[in-house]
Amino acid sequence: MGDRRQRTAPHLPRAPFPLPTGPAFWRSPVRGVRFTAVLGVVLLAGITLLFVTGLLSYAAYNPDLAAVNDKTPAKGLLGFYLFDWPTGPHWLYRLTQGLHVTVGIVLVPVLLAKLWSVVPKLFALPPARSAGHALERCSVLLLVGGALFQFVTGLLNIQLEYLFPGSFYPLHFYGAWVFFAAFLTHTFLKLPRALRVLRRGLPAAQDELASPAPAAETVSRRGALAVVGAGSLLLLVTSAGRSFDGGVRQTALLTPRGGAEPGTGPNGFQINKTAAHVGVTPAETGADWRLTVVGPAGETQLSRAQLLSMGQHSAALPIACVEGWSTSDQWWRGVRLRDLAALAGFPEDPPGVLVESLQRSGPFRSVALRDNQVRDPHSLLALAVNGEDLSPDHGFPARVIVPAAPGVMNTKWVGRLTFGELR
């Protein structure tokens, strides 16, 4: 009789599906300590510049001057460095905030490549092998989370400037301190080794980021760095132009203030917020509009015609906003703030001033300016720009323009100036 037993193929053990916790899961031949070290050194320089220029931007708002300026009232010791923001050079804020936003945009490919290069270590087991390793892992988690939070909120604020009305400042300020603390810790732990690797290299057997079983190479590590650099260059070319006028601005395809200017003629330059958006109506800014000036001399109301009859002065000043865009110098003409302070009862050494706008919505409806800003001869209550009356969207019938101040401090549609009482 034949053998009726069913013949089966010998049982072969099936290879388990690799998990992210094992080195076999990560097979890119590009990953390596040297690749990561190059990206890390670039980020070290770039993020340090971002942090410094960010703190300068915060100081430019003069948050210690008055509650209306302070969007982070619980900052405590974190405001230890604050100083009296100067009025010169007049392009100071244009430079520092332009650098802050441009460098932040340009670093995006570098940051993403750096996170990609070290992602295997985020899944490595055991979570902590020693106290030092536990500290390193905690710093990495805070570093990754903080970096993503800061870059994402910053980019959203650039692209959608009204997404975080009023809340962007505390979010970005406190987030920056948490992120930078983790960044310093990580730099302290990793920078010496990164510099050694860049100087002398590292044997393949000691490269914990390199895959033990890499896939076939499609791009070299140098090629990958070139791709990252090309991405940063592309972002630079398509965003930096928002800080310039003319044809250069039209190259800024990836930012809201790129492309053509919003109009032609003397008032045809960039606008941070329109009259319609903040609820200012033609009826409020028409013939019945009056500027109220308050000080020791009492309360004075001035029509636009009366302001025009006062001594008129000119100043060439840009507008520069927290979103990183700016204009070139525009020729503003109007009454000096220090002359209005004299009218209010401060003929000598005018103090700071509380500026109140007619606008009904949005942050910085009221702004306090420091005494050095009031005293600067280029600080104006502007009535005209580039030889023409202000347009409604540029602040008609009167707006403040101050050297080196953030755009939101240059209040439009001014209704009241109170000298000497800041709140």
UniProtKB/TrEMBL annotation:
Query: Pfam families, alphabetically?
Result: Oxidored_molyb (PF00174)
Keyword Hydrolase annotated: no
Transmembrane stretches in the record are 35-61, 99-119, 140-159, 171-189
UniProt cross-references to InterPro entries, sorted A to Z: Mopterin_OxRdtase_euk, OxRdtase_Mopterin-bd_dom, OxRdtase_Mopterin-bd_sf
The Oxidoreductase molybdopterin-binding domain covers which part of the protein? 281-419
Swiss-Prot/TrEMBL keywords: Membrane, Transmembrane, Transmembrane helix
GO molecular function per UniProt: oxidoreductase activity
Top-level taxon of origin: Bacteria
Name-wise, this protein is: Oxidoreductase molybdopterin binding protein
Taxonomic lineage from the root: Bacteria, Bacillati, Actinomycetota, Actinomycetes, Kitasatosporales
